[in-house]
Amino acid sequence: MDSHWDYVNGLLEQDGELREKIRERVADLDKKARDMAGILDKIHSTPSKSINPLLDAVRPILHSCHETCAALAAIVPPNQFWRWKDMWSHSIRTVVYAAALSEYLANGSLISLEQTSETLGIKEEWKDRFCIAVEDYLHGLITMVNELSRLAVNSVTLGDYEAPIEISLFAKNLFAGFTKLNLKNDLLRRRFDSLKYDLKKIEEVVYDVKLRKLTAPRS
Hints:
Blueprint: H1 2-40, H2 52-75, H3 81-84, H4 89-107, H5 113-119, H6 134-157, H7 163-179, H8 186-211
Helix pairs in contact: 1-2, 1-4, 2-4, 4-6, 6-7, 6-8, 7-8
């Protein structure tokens, strides 16, 4: 009987050691996520013509996530992704947000799940151990729209009257895409519902800009 409990205790110790190793890697990922979020927060007080240096500061941090993601993939046992993913979900969502917002600000386009994985150096063969869950990707996109609604307001303050119109078109297209999804996760559904308020906020800014005739009419 004692040997049985010794065996069980050994399993508990192994789990504890693995959890600590994962926690150390996640702490590194979380720091990088917070650093990028801090840099990107400066877009709200930076003229659009001066945003590129901020993006240049974010890119090397995104690239450095390759090493962190590889380290996580190396220590998570095969077929145990869903057992451990909650430990890094929050950090991954913030990293996805940073990658998505950077892509929009640089190119005006939506980053795909595949592009995001590539940006972070996440390989297909890791999917049973470490990857970006679809729900985490969607959470990151919603956070991006949250920030874009702020940017629509602050862009006008900085004298950029075209930005809210561009943001409005992008956010509406993204919202239309979300409406096609069958969202069964309660938290994700609630956050999706909050997008309606972001869109309303953006539309109010666009309406005010057009009412005051601050931009040239679009054909």
